[in-house]
């Protein structure tokens, strides 16, 4: 399996530290508002990476944090006249609900910054003791120039950075590139006690500490959006490697941006849609499908046209699965003809192609194309006259490959809060009765009623079929 490693700027074979296990950390959202669909991109992408690793048999320990103390959370709290903790709790809950709706699996653990302050104080103290940090007037700074590897992830060089930077002069800093590990409390802000006075941590330290605590000093994969490469991940490396004296993460993965009109979607620019906004227009499965229809390292432009086309593509897969389930009810097990054997061999080769796409740095775009190949072939080859086990094999393959991508393509009551099956069957029977007694007005009104609830009827020679659309 090959992973593009930002650290070395190339695809590399994936070799985990411990055989059969993967330690993975993904930087999570700052919870000061509802998450937007740009934030959802890393969630969906790295959930898919995790699902594929699990499918390959790895035991994945997946940690993703919530940043629940930060300037933006405090500003929002002041705006609403409530505590920062209340804002953080509200939007953490909302983010979890959005992740569930996007079929993003819960992390093995979701640590919160405010619950890990002791660990942060310990690591900051270690950095001071080792000469990598210093305190001045209640602020603790990281001594960036002391860490020889600074810049190795982003490819930036401290002298160039310093020359190009318009950094506000801070008299307390020894060097303009030093960054904050701990800052003193300000009026009206949450704070914790520390050896350097009351205050709160800088942003970067939390991920170093949580990763260390839940995954160990050295991990396999660290991931996030590409805007985190510098300075966040660069600073995490400086902190963790200086404190622990060993390599922090072997592979660094970064997703490209979700854009609108070729500009990064972001809260500060105001050009964003929340996951909630999108859920009002499209099933969130469509959003997940849309996100995975591009490779994670390619920028992806959001538009209604592309969402509509994602919707119809997903519908095409679902319809194929639905039709195959229907065929399963009417087909019988028979011997395999040479053509059937051929079809089977093609199915197996498609599965191999799917895996090859995923093993090439998680190329979900190509993996989805392979699923379409299976759909196309199944639609044209399979019928009720073909062996039952062949029909089932094709259906199960489509369903299980979609499942690796976290895409649900079977009719599934668990993910559908509309009318339960029994009620639908009852209405269909009622419509049949109405038609028998030639009450077509009643029959049509039942059909319309069902259509409004997203249930589509199809009259066939074998009777009425229905599906959720
Ligand atoms: P934040 O809450 O801004 O710290 O972002 C949480 C995660 O979302 C980080 O991994 C960011 O890199 C990522 N992210 C934010 N905006 C976008 C975007 N427009 N496209 C892709 N990823 C993004
Ligand atoms: Zn982080």
Search tags:
3 domains, alpha/beta, four-stranded parallel beta sheet, binds adenosine monophosphate, four-stranded antiparallel beta sheet, Rossmann fold, Four Helix Bundle (Hemerythrin (Met), subunit A), single chain, 469 residues, binds zinc ion
Description of the structure:
- This protein is of the alpha/beta class.
- The chain folds into three domains: 2-255, HUPs (Rossmann fold), CATH 3.40.50; 310-404, Four Helix Bundle (Hemerythrin (Met), subunit A) (Up-down Bundle); 421-468, no CATH class.
- Helices cover 48% and strands 15% of the residues.
- The chain has helices spanning 37-55, 71-80, 84-101, 117-129, 158-164, 204-215, 229-244, 275-281, 284-292, 304-330, 338-359, 364-381, 388-404, 421-436, 440-452, and strands spanning 2-5, 10-13, 21-26, 59-64, 133-136, 139-142, 179-184, 199-201, 219-225, 249-255, 258-260, 263-264, 300-301, 455-460, 463-468.
- The strands form five sheets. It has a four-stranded parallel β-sheet, sandwiched between helices.
- A hairpin with a 2-residue loop joins strand 5 (133-136) and strand 6.
- The two termini are 37 Å apart.
- Adenosine monophosphate is lined by residues 27, 29-30, 38-39, 41-42, 224-225, 227-228, 255, 257-258, 264-266.
- The site of zinc ion (ZN) has 3 residues, from loops.
